[in-house]
Every structure is written in structure tokens, then in C-alpha cells.
Amino acid sequence: MPSIVLCAALLTLVSAVAFAQGPTSQPTFEVASVRPTVPQDGGSFVAMNCSGGPGTSDPGRLSCTNASLKMLICLAYEVQYYQVAGPGWMATDGYDIAAKIPPNASRAQFRQMLQNLLAERFQLVLHREPKDQTTYSLVVAKGGSKMQRSIAEVPSTSVTAVTPGMAVSTADGHVRVTASRQQLSKLTGFLSTLLGVGGPVVDETGLAGYYDFTLEYTPEASLASDNGAGLSLFTALQSQLGLKLEEKKNLGDVLVVDHAQKKPTENL
């Protein structure tokens, strides 16, 4: 099943009043299960993913594995990751969701169903407000790029051709991003959304072509409890990929979480 595009570009936000209201009777999923993700044995990485829904090959079902509440808010309100402000655990704690979507539901109805589910199960309350935001430019760090060119830059018809892809997984509070045959625009897209550095990222590296890379870092919320073993996203980018984020300031709309509970209410 194709993955749902998470944290899509901001289109039109509904009013702050609508954000703050509790769950409504309609529209809702026919059945929905929400459970905290159970860590795998040995603390191995668990991939974050959501698939299904209107417009995909499985329109009648939403399936999420290890999805953070912040990721789910992006999907429900169709905003970018950096436009959601809330407690650090919202970006690190994962949840598994299985929901049945009524037949012929539209994308707008699906998003409302997910908004209602988050309000009901996480007691989520949020509002919109203008806020100074940090945006970033991705540049080559002093000392030069450490990016590795892909050995399969030219698409091939061979059955052994490398399938391009990008995956994000977590384990023990750390995040790993693994990429196969990707342009830098894909990395900046991930930095703007799933990795949540705080604002949109623009590629100013001047690096063309396709690359294979692995990036491992510790989210800011987990650094304090990591006993100095982890690397921040900024440090990891520079030490592992030879890239650097330069920040700028601007004013934009943000969804501010007023309340959310870590443990979702029990499944009925």
C-alpha cells in the first residue's frame, strides 16, 4: 500500500475555534484501535509509517506503525512538521493505529475523522497563532561534503536495479534515516517534515545527482537523558554527511498544542 504523504504543504487552516473543540459525532471511523508501540526485542529500530486512506490503493483502512502524535497531527490538519508546537514526547513516542474508514469517504472527511480520533483518544486540544519561526538553508560544511554518490544513478530496466527509497526508524530514543538513490531535495524535505528541525529547509549545497546515505541522531527531547552518547541533528548532519544547517527567522502560522495526554484512552 502506498504511504500517505505526511505533513503535506500548508493549504488552508480552519479556525482556531475548530482546533480547540472536542470530538464530534460525525464524521468518525467505523472502528479504530490506538495503542502505544511496543518496543522490539533488543531495542532494534522500528520504522515510522502510515498507509492507506482515500486516494490510495486501500481507501477503506488507515494503518500506522510507530507514528508520533506530532506526525498524526500533521496528517490530520495537513500542515508541515515544523508548524506543530508541543511537548517533546509528541515527536518521540510512537503509536500503532488501525482504523476502518467508511466507504466513499473524501480526503477532507478522512482528515476530520482523524482530528476527532485524536481529540477523543489523546484529549488533544490545540489552537493556531502567528509565531516567529526558524527556517534553514542546507549548505556544505567546512571541510567538504561527505555524501556518497549512488552507484545506481541512472535508472535501469534490469531486475537487479536499486529501488530508490528513504526510510525513518527509531530505537531507544534515537532516529535513523536511511536513503537509497536520493537527491538532496529529498533530504531537505525530510528535514522540513519528519525530522522536525523547526522550519522549512532549502537546499543550497549545490550538490547535484543521487546519493546513498545513513543519518543517525538523537532528538532534542532525548538528548538530556542520553548521558552525552547521542548526537543532535545539527551535529550528526555535519559529522556524518558533511552538511550544515544555517538558520534564518520569519513569521508564520503554528498549531500550538494546549493539552494532550501521553497514554491514549482504552480501545472500546
Describe this structure as you would to a colleague.
The protein is an alpha+beta fold. It folds into two domains: 16-131 and 253-259, no CATH class; 133-251, no CATH class. It is built from seven helices and 13 strands. The strands form three sheets. It has a five-stranded antiparallel sheet. Strands 1-6-4-3 form a four-stranded antiparallel sheet. A hairpin with a 2-residue loop joins strand 9 and strand 10. Helix 2 packs antiparallel against helix 4 (107-121). The longest helix is centred in the middle third of the chain and has 15 residues, at 107-121. It is globular, with a radius of gyration of 19 Å. The protein starts with 15 loop residues before the first helix and ends in a 9-residue tail after the last strand. Residues 1-24 and 155-163 have low confidence and may be disordered.
